[in-house]
Specification:
The chain has 255 residues and is of the alpha/beta class. The protein is built from nine helices and eleven strands.
Amino acid sequence: MKVLIFGGTTEGREIADALADLGFEVTVSVATELGREELKDIADIEVVVGRKTQDEIAAMLWTGDYKYCVDATHPYATEVTENIKAACRKLQISYDRLKREEEPVEIPANAVYVNSAREACVYLLGHMAQADTVFITTGAKEAREFADILPERRYIRVLPTEESQRLCADAGFLADHILTGHGPFSKEENVKALEETGATYLVTKDGGKTGGFPEKMQAAEVCDVVPMIIRRPKEEGKTMEQLVRKFSRIMEMME
């Protein structure tokens, strides 16, 4: 029984491992080679690399004869999720969204909430004092949203890939203002980054515990930095436990 998982997240890796253990024939689609690398320890799965349009997703589902599809992409990757859902709907393939569970996090009292990276940039342009700097941790794909801020006053942390470096350079980030690393990062690592950049603002998504969000908030508190939090999009879906239970029942019925 074949399952196609769209991953690139911790949850994607965990559900791939769980379904492979149950005996499903699992293929995981990830956007980058880094995503493939994170799956190398899971036996008996196939990994496909590359970003895909809705038509390419549909073609993959059709030619691979998949019966089930699990969307375990990042909670902020709303466009990708819509494309996966549309392709499954078109082909009448079972679709499940794996939700990243939300856990209570202590947020500093000076936190500012916004709805998008662009909204964060607009806020910063209106509130940053002359000596202020901002440390951006929302990813290279949204680097261009901060292009209106003076280059010497913005820093960004992204994945250590050529694509990330290119996107940041295209958005006008100075080479020595681009930090690279593979998270989630500890409180201490975040504190070090905030101190090295002299940041007065920290822009982040609410990636939950999996994405190192609590540690970012702890570091912001320690460094007296203003956290700017891009709200997580609302989503419907199943938890890891619910999905594993569903696929366990499917496998039991096949025996």
